[in-house]
Here is the input.
Amino acid sequence: IVRMTDLDLAGKRVLIREDLNVPIDDGRITSEQRILAALPTLKLALEKGAAVMVTSHLGRPQEGQWSEADSLAPVAKRLSELLGIEVPLVKDWVGGVEVQPGQLVLLENCRMNVGEGKDDEALSKQYAALCDVFVMDAFGTAHRAQASTHGAIRHAKVAAGGPLLMAELDALAKALDNPARPLLAIVAGSKVSTKLELLSSLVSKVDQLIVGGGIANTFIAAMGHGVGKSLVETDLIDTAKQIMADAKARGADIPVPTDVVVAPAFAADAPATVKAVDAVAADDMILDIGPDTAARYAELIQNAGTVVWNGPVGVFEFDAFGKGTETLARAIAASKAFSIAGGGDTLAAVDKYDIAGDVSYISTGGGAFLEFLEGKELPAVAALKQRAG
Ligand code: 3PG
Here is the structure.
């Protein structure tokens, strides 16, 4: 992949695709992680003397329609503050953009453009015609084959990978291609079904696979234990058994909880009780891993060479059911392992336990992070490789 850092951008018109798809509540940005992650790329392009146009999507608006709720206006304002320069938001931009070297403009939500979602050829060419160099820096959207990702790369005079995208790819390669071992992955979340491909892919790579949340319940059931009223996917119990058998066949370990935290209901104020995993009653809901299990997992993390973390192991939004996730988060922060964390809920946990500074790499990707871990080639990355020859 041609890297933006290697290019001379002085006096060039540079269109940078970022993923500035940040949560906005009532006009207020509630997490600016993605803006902060993009900032070094934008500063570098300005330092290199480029005329900078930045494009991003926000949410999933209807194409062909402008609406205030889907506008990048709050992001333009925040970028102005962070960069210390005026960042105008350009509303109609597909036909041409006025920008001078040393200036940076933000282009309105690219998903408002007709044809963006279906990677329309004509629209991709229009994007490409806006610039001398197209920089793909939106790792979080690299799994989408759309006009502003895959399409513009194919048609731009010069297409390059931006520093953020390259850092993400480098970190993921370090974790998965030739990892310091043991390689431990934590895959948690409510459903096996949404992470089935991830589990199946990781089980062939890792030394230890910690499962948590609703996913763990299905594995607990596969071990023959009762899970009471817990979230469980009974139709996937056989799949969980197969994943455990696959792990065993290659000498990998899927440790299953020996104790759990249960409650009679899914609520912040529900009374929390620690029980042995074989003592879960018919009206119990498993909402976290127990302290013995958490300590055992923390020790595995302590001894790991590489840790990949996706998903909280309990209902950490409720403090009474957050101790398992907190223990693992602190173990990751304390471990010397190369650690990488990604996914929306995971980043919320990283924030809540304030360990961002102690994780080796925090991915800006949600779906893109998962697809990469699943071993899939991301379309935008494939297009960049193809352009590089
Ligand atoms: C994300 O938030 O995961 C990315 O910005 C991609 O958004 P999308 O799922 O709407 O394509």
In short: The longest helix spans residues 33-47. The pocket of 3-phosphoglyceric acid is lined by residues 19, 21, 60, 140-141, 144, 366-367 (CB under 6 Å).
